[in-house]
Specification:
- It is elongated, with a radius of gyration of 22 Å.
- By secondary structure, it is of the alpha/beta class.
- The two termini are 34 Å apart.
- Helix 4 (78-101) packs antiparallel against helix 5.
- A 4-stranded mixed β-sheet has the order 1-2-4-3, with helices on one face.
- It folds into 2 domains: 2-137, no CATH class; 142-193, NAD(P)-binding Rossmann-like Domain (Rossmann fold).
- The chain contains 6 helices and 4 strands, in the order H-H-H-H-H-E-H-E-E-E.
């Protein structure tokens, strides 16, 4: 199943992301109401239904404009996560403002709860996908040790992390102050521990 998703054409992967967001956002709104009211919430007015629809549609449009569906999951950077944060914040503003202008009955804490949930759903789905893609690639890569945990070693580990050929599993370095530390998610060992590693 995962392999099938990995080898989909890029536009189909974007459609999958769009579909996940179009399910996650209304779910986040519903959960925000349910958590705030401490009950299973059922929208009981056209205003709330309109607010939910406007929020989802405007959010998806905003996500497209921010480039969330152009980002390659495998190489997702801090810029993409800032785009998620900005997109979810705009989505929350749309929720609050549309409720205000449509006179929808919405507790004031709902947008705050929604912001937290939407951030988890939208950002979390991308981080989960990134982790799954990385783990599937790691299984086929040759495991290597990098001698030297300085600037060059760190740069090399970053390059290898994104390559399809090699996976760094350890640093070996003479600097005792680095022994036992994790750099870029890779443990630093003493040269004396090399045979064991």
């Amino acid at each position: 199943m995962l392999n099938n998703l990995l080898f989909l054409p890029r536009y189909q992967k974007r459609l999958v992301s769009l579909l996940i967001d179009s399910i996650s956002l209304p779910l986040a709104i519903w959960l925000a109401f349910s958590l705030r009211l401490d009950a299973f919430y059922i929208p009981d007015s056209w205003q709330i239904a309109t607010v939910m629809s406007l929020t989802v549609l405007c959010s998806l449009f905003c996500f497209i404009k921010l480039g969330l569906y152009r980002a390659v999951i495998r190489y997702m950077s801090n810029h993409a996560m800032r785009a998620v944060l900005g997109g979810v914040t705009i989505s929350t503003l749309v929720l609050a403002l549309s409720a205000f202008f449509l006179n929808a009955e919405m507790p004031r804490s709902v947008p705050i709860i929604y912001w937290c949930l939407a951030l988890v759903f939208v950002g979390g789905s991308r981080m989960t996908a990134r982790s799954l893609v990385h783990n599937s690639i790691v299984r086929t890569k040759e495991r290597v040790i990098i001698y030297g945990a300085g600037k060059s070693g760190l740069q090399l580990s970053s390059v290898l992390f994104h390559s399809k050929a090699m996976q760094p599993i350890a640093f070996v370095d003479d600097d005792e102050s680095l022994h036992g530390q994790d750099l870029n998610g890779v443990r630093v060992y003493s040269p004396a521990a090399l045979p064991k590693v």
